[in-house]
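FIELD: query
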Amino acid sequence: MTACWPTRGESKTNPRLRPDGETKPIYWVSGSIHSPETGSPEMLVELAYRLAVEESALIRNIRRNTIVMITPVSEVDGHDRQVDVYRYRKENPNNRLPTSSTGQLCRPRQ
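FIELD: result
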């Protein structure tokens, strides 16, 4: 029978254990659940980058003592549409947006 909880000796093979034998908390950060939420994906990509490469004491402590899972965009189709709308409005400030949802905004750029 295998134990459900790892023992102290498993810290080198089990990523859930901290060096002191305590289990690490798991944080799951999710952003852009709704398509107009455009700030969280950019912020979460920046957070993922900092967690991967930054060497400050704070970030090293997070990497050593927690498990972080990041989902920057939950609703990817809606986020893509928001980006398309932003680009369209930027390039055509005096035009109204197309009213149909036939993919007019998603065509490849010429």
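FIELD: remark
The chain has three helices and two strands.
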